[in-house]
Each structure stands twice: as C-alpha cells, then as structure tokens.
Amino acid sequence: MDYGQLMKEAIEARKAAYIPYSGFGVGAALLDSKGQVHHGCNIENAAYSPGNCAERTAMFRAIADGHQPGTFQAIAVVADTEEPVAPCGVCRQVLFELCGPDMPVILGNLKGDIRQTTVRELLPYAFGPSHLEEQK
Ligand SMILES: O=c1ccn([C@H]2C[C@H](O)[C@@H](CO)O2)c(=O)[nH]1
Ligand SMILES: [Zn+2]
C-alpha cells in the first residue's frame, strides 16, 4: 500500500474521533507487516487526562490484536491543520517503543499536504528499552 492510500485510511479513521472538548479530530492509520491497516482516532474524556491520541489508539489496537512491537511498516496521521499535523511528545515516545526509530511517519492535513519523516527524526536522543537493560 502506498502512503497516499494510507493517508486516505487515516482520513477515514478520523471520522470516528470522539472530541467533545477540543473539537480537534485526528485520524491515524498503522500499516502492519501483512499490509493490513489499523485505524485510530482521538478519544477525549470529561476528566481530560484519560483522553487518548489517534496514534496511540492505532498502535494499542494493533498490539492488542496480537501484532508484535517492531513489526509495523508505517503510520499516517491527519488533522484539519494548516500544516501537516505532528504527533505529540507522548505518542513519539510510544512510537519509538512499539514501531522503532526507522519506521516512516506520514503527516498530513485535509488539504492534501503530506510530509514524510521517521520516528528517529521526531524523537532524537530517545530514551528507550535499551537504557533499562543497562541496569540489569
Ligand atoms: O498528533 C496528535 C495531536 C493531538 N491529538 C489529539 C489529542 C486531543 O484529543 C486533541 C487536542 O490536542 O487532539 C492527537 O490525537 N494526535
Ligand atoms: Zn499524542
């Protein structure tokens, strides 16, 4: 699947966003090793902090369905922003752990602007599982 198609999946995923507080809908589409796509949307909460971003919804959904960390091919993220939307810091940390530094991250907006980056570019000098191994 090409990244344009993956972005279309993210746009579809965004339609399910539960956003009564911010009104800011985000969609994500995570491509697994078999070419299947896992949708994520942001899901907000009246207590605010329990809310979840679209990117983590997609990753957690795929992991919960039995896909192994480090086996994903790419993720596309989209929002109705002037510039292609960028994942928050928490999602960058989870992307690093579950998708690895080299995975492509495709950022988009509803105007059709697309930017391609990687997890490493989004989170340089990342803290990760290897740092905990040093303590064993
Ligand atoms: O990359 C992003 C940035 C923000 N949000 C969500 C969190 C919150 O529900 C709303 C406003 O921050 O957008 C995402 O899902 N992904
Ligand atoms: Zn996030």
UniProtKB/TrEMBL annotation:
<dbReference type="InterPro" id="IPR016192">
    <property type="entry name" value="APOBEC/CMP_deaminase_Zn-bd"/>
</dbReference>
<dbReference type="GO" id="GO:0008270">
    <property type="term" value="F:zinc ion binding"/>
</dbReference>
<dbReference type="GO" id="GO:0004126">
    <property type="term" value="F:cytidine deaminase activity"/>
</dbReference>
<dbReference type="GO" id="GO:0072527">
    <property type="term" value="P:pyrimidine-containing compound metabolic process"/>
</dbReference>
<feature type="binding site">
    <location>
        <position position="88"/>
    </location>
    <ligand>
        <name>Zn(2+)</name>
    </ligand>
</feature>
<keyword id="KW-0862">Zinc</keyword>
<dbReference type="Pfam" id="PF00383">
    <property type="entry name" value="dCMP_cyt_deam_1"/>
</dbReference>
<dbReference type="InterPro" id="IPR002125">
    <property type="entry name" value="CMP_dCMP_dom"/>
</dbReference>
<comment type="function">
    <text>This enzyme scavenges exogenous and endogenous cytidine and 2'-deoxycytidine for UMP synthesis.</text>
</comment>
<feature type="active site" description="Proton donor">
    <location>
        <position position="55"/>
    </location>
</feature>
<dbReference type="InterPro" id="IPR050202">
    <property type="entry name" value="Cyt/Deoxycyt_deaminase"/>
</dbReference>
<feature type="binding site">
    <location>
        <position position="53"/>
    </location>
    <ligand>
        <name>Zn(2+)</name>
    </ligand>
</feature>
<feature type="domain" description="CMP/dCMP-type deaminase">
    <location>
        <begin position="1"/>
        <end position="130"/>
    </location>
</feature>
<dbReference type="GO" id="GO:0042802">
    <property type="term" value="F:identical protein binding"/>
</dbReference>
<keyword id="KW-0378">Hydrolase</keyword>
<feature type="binding site">
    <location>
        <position position="91"/>
    </location>
    <ligand>
        <name>Zn(2+)</name>
    </ligand>
</feature>
<protein>
    <recommendedName>
        <fullName>Cytidine deaminase</fullName>
        <ecNumber>3.5.4.5</ecNumber>
    </recommendedName>
</protein>
<dbReference type="GO" id="GO:0005829">
    <property type="term" value="C:cytosol"/>
</dbReference>
<dbReference type="GO" id="GO:0055086">
    <property type="term" value="P:nucleobase-containing small molecule metabolic process"/>
</dbReference>
<keyword id="KW-0479">Metal-binding</keyword>
<feature type="binding site">
    <location>
        <begin position="42"/>
        <end position="48"/>
    </location>
    <ligand>
        <name>substrate</name>
    </ligand>
</feature>
<comment type="similarity">
    <text>Belongs to the cytidine and deoxycytidylate deaminase family.</text>
</comment>
<dbReference type="InterPro" id="IPR016193">
    <property type="entry name" value="Cytidine_deaminase-like"/>
</dbReference>
<dbReference type="InterPro" id="IPR006262">
    <property type="entry name" value="Cyt_deam_tetra"/>
</dbReference>
